[in-house]
Amino acid sequence: MLAEFAPAKVNLYLHVTGRRADGYHLLDSLAVFGPAGDVLALAPAASLTLALEGPFGGALAAEPDNLVLRAARALAAAAGRPAAAGLTLTKHLPVASGIGGGSADAAAALRGLHRLWDLGLDAAALAGIAASLGADIPVCLGRRPMRMGGIGEVLTPAPILPACGLLLANPGLALATPAVFRARQGGFSPPAALPTRWPDGPAMARDLAALRNDLEAPAIALCPPIGTVLAALRSLPGCLLARMSGSGATCFGLFADAAAARAAATRLPAGWWREAGGLYGEAG
Ligand SMILES: C[C@](O)(CO)[C@H](O)COP(=O)(O)OP(=O)(O)OC[C@H]1O[C@@H](n2ccc(N)nc2=O)[C@H](O)[C@@H]1O
Ligand SMILES: Nc1ncnc2c1ncn2[C@@H]1O[C@H](COP(=O)(O)OP(=O)(O)OP(=O)(O)O)[C@@H](O)[C@H]1O
């Protein structure tokens, strides 16, 4: 039995820089991971099966084509072998919430099945399969802070990040990514100019404050409670910056460290989904 952790993806900023002829949008974004995630367990089996567990497993019960199964079939096809494995997805991340839960799960399936099936594909081949499944999946494969370009699949190094804390909050409302892109008005933003490193959380927050998430305004227009979540995060002691992630509705608060983020989480309404801690795979 193998297990793969599938941490939430958080877009610290997201500029929509253009639009391709096929309708997909060109992005410039800084993605980080944590502090919550799904877990995918994988075991040998005679056929491909998926069991759903966890607080948000039920929300996916009616999903006809779970991204985990699509990832398994795509990897098996690329490797020329049958797609056979027993998978159990424990869903802790809210569905359709801007933190790439489905993408993280698909990336976990690619990593885990690559090990379970002992495939030996190179990183570029895996990244190509990931990109064919969704714009957020390549960055989720690495689970490391990365700058996203292209439609999300062009990955370049992120600035060296300081230890910091993140608090994620969602009012319990799902938002479909295509609808948010469609609701966007106005022109495009230039790519950000970023330093090679940030010495501490406050310095990072100062630079990030000059940037934005271009999907925040259209998401608030479609889902006004996002504005309430942002205001609540901004009012918390120690919150350095509050912003929406991806296409929403999940928002994040940035804190100097994980302890400050955890302490602040307890002050948010108990009915909201709230998770706090440090960045995945980084100090803090
Ligand atoms: C907004 C982000 O979450 C930022 O990380 C991602 O770009 C979205 O990634 P994703 O959910 O994996 O996106 P996909 O499943 O590939 O695309 C869903 C839909 O979102 C829109 N979409 C997505 C990515 C992109 N760069 N431009 C787009 O316009 C398209 O309408 C597309 O049909
Ligand atoms: N394993 C999965 N987890 C979540 N959603 C899935 C999964 N498989 C398929 N889906 C479908 O994908 C849609 C988008 O879900 P997801 O949770 O990845 O959205 P998101 O967090 O907004 O992603 P992003 O930040 O990449 O836009 C869901 O509405 C659901 O229909």
TrEMBL record:
The pathway that the record names for this protein is: Isoprenoid biosynthesis; isopentenyl diphosphate biosynthesis via DXP pathway; isopentenyl diphosphate from 1-deoxy-D-xylulose 5-phosphate: step 3/6
**Protein known as:** 4-diphosphocytidyl-2-C-methyl-D-erythritol kinase
Which part of the chain is the GHMP kinase N-terminal domain? 66-141
UniProt GO molecular function: 4-(cytidine 5'-diphospho)-2-C-methyl-D-erythritol kinase activity; ATP binding
* Gene Ontology biological process terms, A to Z: isopentenyl diphosphate biosynthetic process, methylerythritol 4-phosphate pathway; terpenoid biosynthetic process
EC number(s) per entry: 2.7.1.148
* HAMAP family assigned to the protein according to its UniProt record, in alphabetical order: IspE
- Pfam families in the cross-refs: GHMP_kinases_C, GHMP_kinases_N
According to its UniProt entry, this protein's organism is: Roseicella frigidaeris
The entry's family comment says:
Belongs to the GHMP kinase family. IspE subfamily.
Superkingdom as given in the UniProt entry = Bacteria
Which reactions are catalysed by this chain? 4-CDP-2-C-methyl-D-erythritol + ATP = 4-CDP-2-C-methyl-D-erythritol 2-phosphate + ADP + H(+)
The yes or no answer to whether the keyword Chloroplast is present is no
Q: Does the keyword Transferase apply?
A: yes
Q: What does this protein do?
A: Catalyzes the phosphorylation of the position 2 hydroxy group of 4-diphosphocytidyl-2C-methyl-D-erythritol.
Where ATP is bound, by residue? 94-104
Cite the GHMP kinase C-terminal domain residue spans from the record: 209-270
Keyword entries, A-Z: ATP-binding, Isoprene biosynthesis, Kinase, Nucleotide-binding, Transferase
Identify the catalytic residues.
Answer: 9, 136
